[in-house]
Amino acid sequence: MADHLEASVTLPSDPASVAAARAFVVGTLAEWGLPSDSETADTVRLMVSELATNAVQHTLGQSPTFTVDLVLAREEQLRIGVTDSHPRLPKRLPAAVQQDNGRGMVIIRWLTVECGGSLTVRRTREGGKTVCVELPWTARVRPGPVPAAGQQEP
Fold first, then answer.
1. Dihedral of the CA atoms 8, 121, 51, 48 (nearest 10)?
2. Hey, is 55 helix, strand or coil?
3. Are 112 and 133 in contact (CB under 8 A)?
């Protein structure tokens, strides 16, 4: 296997793109050996959902697209990055009891720590930002296509 695998998708900053981002990530990770019904896949799905939602909702129409990048390094570490072109960095909002939003980054931070990973936010050269989650990789990478349901690997 190569030192790393990479996959990327750029989507319009539209609420419908959140589901597309989740499907892209879960499908890619399944190709890389992580079963889509695993607890880790569920955790990553939730993280991507929160990050993509932030990229759509909190860019105030100033980022026409966002990009989801996946990198699997040396079958040891998974890096998930969500990039948009809005300059404002994410911040924790005061979460009033009646408030429906403002908890996304808290959820992502908590899940990241629970998984033994790290979370960083960095500015891009173009003036936007990337929110990056790095997690330990727990699946075995499959050398070929994912077997269809009911089939066994040789």
1. 50
2. helix
3. yes
Angle 45-52-42 from CA coordinates, rounded to 5°: 5
User: What residues does 132 pair with on adjacent strands?
Assistant: 81, 120
Q: Which sign does the torsion angle of CA 143, 144, 147, 152 carry?
A: negative
Q: pLDDT per residue over 67-113, tens digit each?
A: 999 999 988 999 999 999 998 888 766 655 545 566 788 889 999 99
**C-alpha–C-alpha distance, residues 36 and 72, integer Å:** 16
Are 28 and 20 spatial neighbours (Cβ–Cβ below 8 Å)? no
* CA contacts within 13 A on the Cβ side of 11: 23
CA–CA separation, 47 vs 118, rounded Å? 13
Cβ–Cβ < 8 Å for 72, 141: yes
Q: Whole-angstrom Cα distance, residue 11 to residue 56?
A: 10
